[in-house]
Design brief:
Length: about 625
């Protein structure tokens, strides 16, 4: 049995456990094991033959004793006891049902036991025949929403979210790099342009191993990567395959001399390339994936780097995020391309959750993680009571929570001033909490990343000794546009984010006046994820976004770009509109754990796609004090 089959069975088991409402840690351990197996450079089955070292399996991170036993069983019998037991109750195809709106594990289990429906086609049939209406809490509304969800799912299921695509690009790059003589792997295509979803991965590879006369062995290496599910094509310098989740990957191995031309060509977009080629033709040049050439004698004008190619066409270098043929060529001619924002420009994060509601970590853990990422200030903004499933805060708890935030802030200030002393004397501090901060001095924003992309380069090490934690709240906008907490409570908060989390189906006029009313509340400082969309899974609610942005600009309410790749809300087009209207803009992670603070990189990419600069954002202000001057004044 190959790695992909083992991984698929482990993943299926995780899905079945999910439907069985098992413990989340247990579910996660199967998912992690599937990923670990998929990532191995050798076939795992060879580690479990009778004469192999029993410790070899356990040496794989993410595989403990129990999981090792599962893998031994899978290799020996093609299945394992837990999976067989779950399959007496459920079917593997139910996994896909979980991705539909309103279909949680319990609902999936119920529909199976009542109607023996286990896949999307059968579910659609049952919904259309009205069979679902007879089940508890599944009225006509549920059925309508579900049918719409099935339609959207069919439309979306061929694209992948940027963060997932980036993770796959990372994993594949690591494996390819193991071959000697490969020094550079760059994702091209829509991933390099930073689109929020990608259709397939285009990876460009170069290094000595890619020279034409010796590339064959490198091609063999790529074509035999164990994470390949189906090999689609293997050519002289190209390998195409799909992964277990059906994501297609095109890998091209190119000599150094033409790498720039290839990068330019395969980054696209198609429309940008068409416009660029027209410009080349007007100058007696021709542009293809190998070079920019003079037409009359075929001499190469530029090929090794993208910068050379743009320069030879009398254009300023155009960052990949702008290559959508939406004005970038004209700007490059006129030297008016913006200096796009980068990760290093971000100094604060104004939206995150803690274990007081649905976050995982404490106030202090979030603050220290933010410090380690070089931020100068954060706002803690937990949910309000209307969002009951998150254990949202009522007025009393919200006030107690910000009291706690202020205490942690004061404590941290004290620690930082002690740390400043230690820094002066250059001796590591004795206090263990300070050692954490001390160690974070040699910080990298996202150390696990193998793939570097433009705009999110590493930042220099620095520890902001004036770091502040701002007390805040993400308060629900109720059906009528009033806010979920008392004005007297909101008055205590530095950061009040108002967000819609319920009743997404209101008619457009109603939703618009609901959000307008929330903006009018003098305590509202930020409008959170303004359209409510979820990438590939939920359409934005109906709202006159233009009116909202105009009014927000007038009132000085900042509008958010929520950097969570699941939201990415406002989108790039709305962000451009927000700038035109003179809105203040903030990019926030909405982190629910310390790791999710890293999601800021996806936000930066979308801001860059929207042509935004450091000056267009408020949380690029260097300190909490400077930020305050950008916020709507307190009433
Ligand atoms: P995707 O994969 O749907 O998210 O979008 P892309 O932009 O990655 O498109 P893809 O994978 O079909 O092609 C990658 C790049 O290669 C594309 O952005 C431009 C270039 N390219 C591919 N086919 C053509 C073509 O027929 N003409 C031109 N000019 N460029 C092409
Ligand atoms: Ca692509
Ligand atoms: Ca492609
Ligand atoms: Zn929210």
């Amino acid at each position: 049995m190959d790695n992909i089959s083992i991984a698929r069975l482990l993943d299926e088991t995780a899905a079945l456990l999910e439907i069985d409402a098992a413990d989340t840690f247990r579910i996660r351990s199967y998912r992690r094991a599937a990923e670990a197996v998929e990532q191995q450079t050798t076939q795992v089955a060879t580690l479990v033959t009778p004469d192999s070292d029993p410790k070899a399996l356990l040496a794989i991170p993410g595989i403990g004793k129990g999981m090792a036993a599962n893998i031994v069983a899978l290799v020996a019998t093609g299945t394992m006891p837990l999976r067989e037991e779950l399959l007496t109750k459920y079917k593997p195809t139910m996994l896909e049902l979980l991705r539909l709106p309103g279909m949680g594990p319990k609902t999936v289990a119920l529909i199976w036991s009542a109607l023996q429906v286990a896949d999307i086609d059968a579910l659609e049939e049952a919904a259309k025949a009205g069979h679902l209406n007879k089940l508890p809490r599944m009225g006509e509304k549920f059925t309508t929403k579900l049918l719409k969800g099935i339609e959207d799912h069919r439309k979306n299921s061929s694209r992948f979210r940027i963060d997932q695509a980036m993770d796959h690009a990372d994993r594949i790059s690591t494996l390819i790099r193991a071959f000697p003589g490969i020094d550079e792997i760059t994702p091209a295509g829509s991933l390099r342009r930073g689109r929020e979803t990608v259709g397939d991965l285009d990876l460009l590879v170069t290094g000595p191993a890619c020279e034409a006369n010796i590339v064959a062995a490198a091609i063999e290496h790529v074509a035999s990567l164990p994470l390949i599910d189906k090999l689609i094509a293997k050519g002289q310098n190209k390998v195409s395959f799909t992964l277990r989740n059906n994501l297609q990957v095109d890998v091209r191995l190119l000599p150094r001399a033409s790498y720039g031309a290839a990068l330019q060509y395969f980054t696209g977009s198609k429309m940008h390339n068409v416009a660029l080629r027209q410009r080349a033709i007007k100058r007696g040049l021709t542009l293809n994936e190998y070079a920019l050439l003079r037409v009359e004698d075929n001499t190469i004008v530029a090929a090794a780097t993208e910068a050379d190619i743009y320069r030879a066409l009398d254009l300023d270098y155009i960052p990949p995020e702008l290559r959508e043929n939406s004005g970038e060529l004209e700007a490059a001619v006129n030297h008016t391309l913006p200096t796009l924002i980068t990760l290093a420009d971000i100094r604060g994060d104004l939206h995150m959750h803690t274990d007081a509601t649905d976050g995982r970590d404490t106030i202090l853990q979030m603050a220290e993680a933010a410090l380690a990422r070089g931020l100068s200030y954060i706002a803690i903004t937990d949910h309000s009571k209307n969002l009951a499933m998150t254990n949202g805060l009522d007025d009393t708890r919200a006030l107690a929570h910000i009291k706690r935030i202020r205490e942690v802030d004061a404590e941290l200030q004290q620690n930082l001033s002690e740390l400043a002393d230690a820094l002066m004397k250059d001796i590591p501090p004795a206090n263990p909490r300070l050692s954490i901060l001390w160690n974070s001095l040699s910080f990298r924003p996202d150390p696990e990343r193998a793939t570097r992309v433009e705009g999110v380069a590493e930042k220099p090490a620095s520890l902001p000794l004036n770091f502040r934690i701002l007390p805040g709240i993400e308060v629900d906008i109720l059906a009528d546009g009033t806010l979920d907490l008392d004005d007297s409570t909101l008055a205590q908060m530095d950061i009040v984010i108002a967000s819609v989390h319920s009743l997404f189906n209101q008619p457009v006029e109603e939703m618009t006046s609901r959000v307008l009313r929330a903006l009018e509340n003098p305590h509202t400082r930020i409008l959170g994820h303004p359209t409510g969309r979820k990438v590939l899974s939920r359409e934005p609610y109906a709202i006159h976004i233009d009116q909202i942005l105009k009014r927000a600009a007038e009132l000085g309410v900042a509008v958010e770009h929520n950097a969570s790749p699941a939201r990415s809300d406002l989108n790039d087009l709305h962000l451009r509109l927000a700038k035109q209207h003179g809105c203040k803009i903030t990019v926030n992670t909405d982190a629910h754990s310390t790791e999710e603070l890293n999601q800021i990189r996806y936000g930066i990419t979308q801001l860059r796609r929207a042509w935004l600069t450091k000056e267009d954002l408020i949380n690029t202000q260097p300190t909490a004090e400077a930020l305050r001057t950008q916020l709507r004044p307190k009433p």
